[in-house]
Design brief:
Blueprint: H1 4-8, E1 13-17, E2 20-24, E3 30-31, H2 33-56, H3 66-74, H4 81-88, H5 92-104, E4 108-112, E5 120-124, H6 126-146, H7 150-168
Antiparallel strand pairs: 1-2, 2-3, 4-5
Length: 171
């Protein structure tokens, strides 16, 4: 293996030979059973993280759905549709429907980039910022009940940063 990137790109083809599982890698080298078990354990933990993330992100308004994910993506800066489609895993038509709904609710607006008048971007309105801030405050309140010390909060942030970095390499 040649670093973290190669480890992330592993899961290409799983097969069994003489009761030993192997993973076929790009260069057709074979990974022993112990490494397959490690990859399986990581896969299980990713699913477990997803389940607990859903539980932690539930608010008075319900689950953190597509609308909330769209608003969260736009929280830092305006984004063009192509980036949003990639981030949200949506096709153009579904993003257009979701954006139209959010525009109708006054949460986002569509505008042209100042540098290129042809390029379209979506951005949060003040109402959209208030909406997402309210959701994040509810989630933060939940976290304060389990992360009671600065040391706990710092460790949680570092572990989540590491998980986000790892998952960001997955194509």
């Amino acid at each position: 293996m040649h670093g973290k990137n190669n480890a992330i790109k592993l899961i290409l083809f799983l097969y069994r030979v003489d009761n030993r599982a192997h993973i076929m890698y790009n260069s057709y080298t074979y990974i022993p059973y112990a490494e397959v078990r490690t990859i399986n354990a990581i896969s299980d933990k990713i699913i477990e993280l997803l389940l607990y993330t859903r539980k932690a992100s539930e608010t008075e308004r319900g689950a953190f759905g597509l609308k909330e994910r769209l608003l969260f993506c736009l929280r830092r800066r305006p984004l063009p549709p192509r980036e949003l489609m990639e981030m949200l895993g949506m096709v153009k038509s579904n993003l257009a429907l979701l954006a139209r709904k959010c525009i109708g609710e006054g949460l986002i607006e569509k505008s042209r980039r100042s540098s290129d008048n042809r390029a379209l971007v979506y951005e949060l309105t003040d109402k959209g910022n208030e909406y997402i801030d309210g959701l994040l405050n509810q989630i933060e309140s939940k976290l304060h009940t389990v992360l009671t010390t600065d040391k706990d909060r710092q460790a949680a942030e570092e572990n989540l940063d590491a998980a986000i970095e790892l998952l960001s390499y997955i194509p």
